[in-house]
Amino acid sequence: MADATLLDKVHDLSDLELAALICLVAQEHCIIDTEPDALDDLVQELELVASKVFGVTHAVIDCSEHTSLDDFAHAILSVEAIPTRSNSPVRTRQDYFLHSPAFGSMSRSPVTDSFGDNKTIANVIIAKNLDEAPRQVQIQALELMRTKRIYTRTSVQNAPKRFLFIALLAGGEGPRLTKHLNDYMFISHFHDPEDGFPNLEDIYDDGSSISSVVKKSPSQEPDVTSDARISAADIEHLTELSHHTTVCVEVKQYQQNIISFLRLHRAVAGGISAPATKHFDKLARCLAPLHDLSYATPSLVSLAARKIYLHRVQIVKPEKERSMQWGSDLDAVATLLEGIGAEDVIEDVLGTAGAETPL
Q1: N- to C-terminal Cα separation, the chain
Q2: Which residues pair with 187 in a beta bridge?
Q3: Which of 28, 50, 90, 278 could cysteine-pair with 186, CB 3.0–4.6 Å?
Q4: Residue 268: which of 309, 215, 326, 236 has the closest Cα?
Q5: What domains does the chain contain, in order, with CATH numbers?
Q6: 77-78 and 120-121 strand pairing
Q7: What's the rounded mean pLDDT across residues 223-231?
Q8: Contact 278, 322 (CB under 8 A)
Q9: What are phi and psi of 191, to 5 degrees?
């Protein structure tokens, strides 16, 4: 199990920092959602999380319908990191703890010759409004995550060992990315602006200018701290512990029952895929060391389900609901499905009417 010092550091992380840590431990990628008005603040907060908490390089790409493949490739390349000021204390919010509320690739587009060979892919890629990017850009993002490389005209750029791709979205529920990209994302997390942006607040408390500390032009080097709170060794240790997490037969059966109930739920049109099942099991194993456990519990499985399926569950259209083939009234079905979202479906399955929790 993890030592007490590491657990103390983990329990002091905010919700965004925990989401990033879990993805780094699992070596997977995530979706982070927030309100549209808070999107810019969230970008800056995640930049500070990358540099101050994990001590890694980061890059931001602001996607739109006009984003090209070259724009995407240029934005994710970063120069060598340089040290910055030491980090400040962070306010906590533990959304990932039990006592908290709870494909085929397209042809590659080579990067233009102006891309310097001294640049490398940043450790953390923050793709703002990725759902607004053209389909070919989203496929390029998927290819980057799957192969951990991107092709230029003169070389192949490989992603670093610690690599995290964050799709930053604003507002909405359910799948918004292309099908295969959405299914490849490990977890999704909604950050409520009312929970604050601890690292940004620290900068304001220091009397520093946000524009001088956070905002950077593409030509500037990213800020990386030399004394990260969560080191590479810490992440590797947690990853190793997750590989040795035990899942007993009863808990495994509970996992499978949740999957079956989700697939059979009358409001679900799809999204309960085989990759999601693998991610479901992986997240439950990754959560155990964070709770100082060497085994997965039913509570951890429930917690994992909320993070794995929130962005995957597709709500069925009333005319496609299965009872319609037996003569149900369309208006009645539409009324029944009105207002139901992915979160409601998950809570329904995890509730008393869903899969039975093993004692």
Answers
A1: 24
A2: 30
A3: 28
A4: 309
A5: 4-230 (3.40.50.300), 244-350 (1.10.8.80)
A6: antiparallel
A7: 72
A8: no
A9: -105, 115
